[in-house]
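Researcher: Good morning. I'm working through a list of sequences from a screen, and I'd like to move beyond sequence-only analysis. For each chain I'm collecting a predicted structure so we can compare shapes side by side. This is the next one on the list. No need for commentary yet; just the structure.
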Amino acid sequence: MENEKLKELLRFCIKKPGSYLKIKNIIYAPKLFFINSVLFQLQKNLNNGLIDDVELSRCIECVYGYIGEEHELSFDNGTLQKVY
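Model: Good morning. Structure tokens for this chain:
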């Protein structure tokens, strides 16, 4: 179930206007690469029991805000944080 939330979030981020820049046949997507890394780490932590559903939901909301350019993201002691 939670894996589906992460996949849905990645699909949303890819479709978000401005999430990447395409010039001819080259795609520049630094935000998407970062988001993919964040989602990979979240999935790993979820599989290892290091985070629960509440923390996963909080992190997903952080990523939505990041792709919507409401804030930046940072890892602080292994925890995803909003940076204003």
